[in-house]
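Feature request, filed as a ticket because there's no other form

It would be nice if the structure record came with a short human-readable summary line next to the tokens. Right now we just get the raw output. Example of a typical job, pasted below so the devs can see what we mean:
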Amino acid sequence: MQDLLNDILEEVKPLVGQGNVASYIPELAKVNPNQFGIAICDTQGNVTKAGDATTGFSIQSISKVFNLVLAYIYYGNSLWERVGCEPSGLPFNSLVQLEYENGIPRNPFINAGALVVSDMVHSRLISPHVALRDLIRKLSGNPYVLSDVDVAESEFEYRARNAAMSYLMKAFGNFHNDVEEVLHTYFMNCALRMSCVDLARATQFLANRGFCTITKSDVLTGDQTRQMNALLATSGLYDEAGSFAFKVGLPGKSGVGGGIIAVVPGRFSICVWSPALNKMGNSLAGVAALESLTRHIKWSVY
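Raw output as currently delivered:
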């Protein structure tokens, strides 16, 4: 596996730095685009890594996976009464479908859906961000995971579009808590800083039918894990989900910080990171690395 990751690193080096960092979040615009890391965690908890795999970065929308875990814990399948499980086919921050579909977001991985999930978790917990941070610390085995407050404040300053989604859903009765409070929590979650190694370990349960080797406990049931992986396959990369399925063929979730997590069910979880993004807002070198990986191992879920 180490030789494979080293080969992938050499293969994608010419792509590293191509594309653009997420400049609409001022703090992310400062990140050096010429970085690349990859890490794999197998179902026994063994980690293999290459490149900048221990460098921390802003996980952004990858946090939506863990927030959905919290919603599963507190709501079970009733959470699907407030958010759908269909691909959107639109950019991650689109408001278009909310108006036509009575404030019910298409899935929990677009921003509107993640905001509803955050609202649901907010209704059950006094400190929802602390709960999410502590969950991630346990799953990753890293007790030092923290949010970058500068990134969170930068995002909150430019919150208008996310606030518009939240208030629109509130008008339809699908948002119950104070919008500004939920947005603060949402951005603190997005601003969590982790490495490829951290994320590969924290998502290993998705490759292991919900069982986390690190905590030696079930995170989700087998059925919930199957549902999560299905959503990741159809909606995890927004309006590039179809292309990602075609090229890579794995459940995955991206973030505008340049990270992508992916799952080979029954075998291992993966995290790649390179900050420069393609036109769809996903890591350009990261997508190429995952395409190379599945080509080398000759495996996909399809």
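Something like this underneath would help us a lot:
The chain has one domain: 2-297.
The chain is about 45% helix and 10% strand.
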